[in-house]
Amino acid sequence: MPVNRHPQAPAPLVPGSEGDRVYPVTADPRQRPGTPPAPPRHAPLPELVVVGAHGGAGVTTLAGLLRPAWDLGVVRRPGPGCGVLRPSGRPVLLVARGTVPAAGRAVAAARLLDEQGVQVAVLAVVGDGLPEPAEARYRFRILEGRVGAVIRVPFVPVFRVTADPLSAGLPRRARRALAAIRSLVHEHEPVARHSLGASSVSCSSGSNRRTRRLDPGRGPGA
């Protein structure tokens, strides 16, 4: 039997993170017969900016349910210590309750954002378990021509008794409303995701305001 007098040189070693020896792959990995194909990689969800037309609208809860999102609190008129809203291309979700006073605040907030050059992608009207008053429906109908869409988010009774709304199971109607919001804000995303940095969102509205970015897997308290 002939003897190979020129043995092949060993593959170069690459130091691993734990000091182990790792050999670099020199050929393209091939799928083994009978193994299922790797699942396709999904594009990351677009960030959105969530603002309230008034206090207690449910901004923090919706921002957590729709993360990654920026919780920017209540829309305020620019002034000393309160800058304009600069979403930097991120779609804006305006949140209001389904009451007559809240509908009036939503009209004022949409007008204020429009004056700042900010287009509202979706107005989320959060229900309280009671029929929506006719006057509130009328005001929200007027806003349909000023915002991208108006979505009703139904009342979720479990939110009243749970300490962590984000861990509670949602009814089908609520899940459908969130899916509709996510789909609509995706259509209104004018800037590519990779061109946006975390520091490009800016909204300052007072010493007691806190701008928070809610990432996937993290709730408001994280």
Structural summary, described in words:
- The chain has 222 residues and is α/β, with parallel strands linked by helices.
- The chain has a single domain, classed as Rossmann fold (3-Layer(aba) Sandwich).
- The chain is 22% helix and 16% strand.
- The protein has 4 helices and 8 strands.
- A 6-stranded mixed β-sheet has the order 7-6-5-3-4-8, with helices on both faces. Strands 1-2 form a two-stranded antiparallel ribbon.
- Helix 1 (59-65) links the parallel strand 3 (48-52) and strand 4 (69-74).
- The chain is globular, with a radius of gyration of 25 Å.
- It starts with 13 loop residues before the first strand and ends in an 8-residue tail after the last strand.
- The model is unreliable at 11-29, 191-211 and 216-222 (pLDDT under 50).
**Measured on Cα atoms, how large is the radius of gyration?**
25 Å
Weakly predicted, low-confidence segments: 11-29, 191-211, 216-222
The major pleated sheet works out as: 6 strands, mixed
Residue share in helices? 10-25%
CATH class call: Alpha Beta
Give the tally of β-strands.
8
The CATH architecture name reads 3-Layer(aba) Sandwich
Mean pLDDT: 76
CATH superfamily: P-loop containing nucleotide triphosphate hydrolases
- Globally, the shape reads globular
Strand content: 15-25%
Instruction: Estimate nothing, just give the exact number of structural domains.
Output: 1
- Structural class based on helices, strands and sheet pairing: alpha/beta
Figure out the total of helices.
4
